[in-house]
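Intended use. Records such as the Fatty acid ABC transporter ATP-binding/permease protein entry shown here are meant for training and evaluating sequence-to-structure methods. They are not intended to support clinical decisions.
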Amino acid sequence: MSEQNQQKRGWAAKAEAAKAARDAAEAKDADAAGAVTAVDDDDMEETEYTPGEADGGMFGNLPAKKAKAFGPSAKRLLGLLKPEAAGVVFVIGLVVVSVVLNVIAPKILGSAMDVIFGGVMGKQLPPGVSQAAFAEGLRQAGQNNFADMVSKMELTNGINFSKLTFLISIVLLMYFVANIFLWAQGYILNKIVMKVINRLRNDVQAKLNRLPLNYFDTRQRGDILSRVTNDVDNVQQGLQQAFAQLVSSVLTVFGITIMMFIVSWQLALIALVALPLSGVLAGVIGSRSQKLFAAQWKNTGSLNGQIEESFSGHELVKVFGRDADMLERFDERNEALYKASFGAQFVSGIIFPAMNFVSYLSYVGIAVVGGLRVASGSMSLGDATAFIQYSREFTQPLGQIAGMANMLQSGVASAERVFEFLDADEEMPENAARHLPPRTDGHVEFENVSFSYVANKPLIENLSLSAEPGHTVAIVGPTGAGKTTLVNLVMRFYELNAGRITLDEVDIKELSRSELRSKVGMVLQDAWLFGGTIYDNIKYGNLDATEEQIMEAAKATYVDRFVRALPDGYQTIIDEEGNNVSAGEKQLITIARAFVSDPSLLILDEATSSVDTRTELLLQKAMAALRTDRTSFVIAHRLSTIRDADTILVMENGSIVEQGNHNQLLALQGAYYRLYMSQFAGEDAEETVVDDSTAVHS
């Protein structure tokens, strides 16, 4: 397969993906308004969608918040890490070591505190009096608690600085190593996640090119765009932050709990009593804030839709003098957003102060009971100090777990939407049993073709037609007749229900889609220009084309006439929306793009419907040059553009009701005659019809 054919692979899917970017703004308005109606061309059934969290949030471009099936989706998400299993295990090992060092360090720091306190108290011993004798003397004096505390302390004659230095050095080293390991696990995990997301993006892009056109026809463009961009980004964020943080926080809570029970099980119970109360507060306040945040997003969407509508329809607002009305509607929605946002932020802001208050209650209880136990000699001052530090560090990972759990849930929900996209039904497997020569005659045959978009709702039934090599076949008819469907079937954008289509006597099902589409040049009603120069956009039709061939195509299609007037000529950069060239100029560029591909079969789908009459004349000349020596299918509503076609097919309800050239069909005074008269009603049209009819009879 040539490089040119490979680049053309997935033509339709790429065009649809490009269209999604421009349709995203329309999807926002649709989501804000309510139900969204997705319709393809004039042949498609309408399908109604109701936006919500499952559709990617407001505007269809926000990541989902909750997964439909959290367990299976989370398991599949973790399955993405299997190729990096060794790295993941190493990361977890680094986290474990880091957590263990961080958890043990306060206990050693408490021992350092005991060294200091023991040295200070030892200085108070009378000369020549042992620690035991001193404690006994205190008991005889009625100071039993103080005596118990002194008896269990390691008293020294002054602070043992060598031991203190050793303990502090150990603590500093432990914290240093723990943080080095923490940085290392973050660095390695980041590389692992980037590899996973890179593979996921590649899978999504490959899937995009394998999906049939009807997938895009029946789904909201903004939702598809959300799945392949925002949802993938949300998965990345979930894996990067939630995964490592959750593992670290869970291990930290587990480790601190063990250490608290080792130091003092009585104080540990006091610390754990605060957990249920914190959980109840977080649950009650969190559920309330979640509802308010939902209202905030809803009102945000409504306001943004209003703003976008105001800007996009600014001229119309001015024409009808609706400035005050638009301002009033803006004020109403802005006020609603203010109230919802204030309520959401206020309620959510209560969570951490409330949990901190409970934490402080626990802290006070631990300090009081711990002080009493130190005074009674039940525990050392160092252990009490270590336990207080543990109690302060205990609530931090709990809060992190709560926050990361929400992030992980959102990441799994996004992963679920990406997996739904990856699991979508693909195009039928290719059976490339036949091949065509580089240049074909372009003889197309429809043999008893039947097709429907929706089961039990036939659109085309038992249709047969022949397009001779080098002829121009025009297809006309009312909206919904099946015109665009007919050429889409030639391109194998859809698969037939029955019958077959042949190109030069070869069933197109026996050709690879890339080879078939490499023989076809297509100019759509919407002129799609990609980011880059005018030169690059023309060359897109044939990446192997020489500069001479590109210039020849530009001159033949009248592109050269306006490009020469541009300051940068063919190197003029087309902006994102193509606004720096007119609609007619964009269409001429797309025709030049088809021209340079030198196709055997040409399809023109309403290529002149969106331009003025003068530009249409240029387009007709360009298309006439393009149609020379190749079979052409031309879909048109303006009958003036197809009067010179060799064959005109009149379609109604998926069937060909009339067939012939312009004069023959006018003479029949049937469906084509009625269409023609509806466009050219009046005296001039009557004279034209008389002249044409006379020509037929003569």
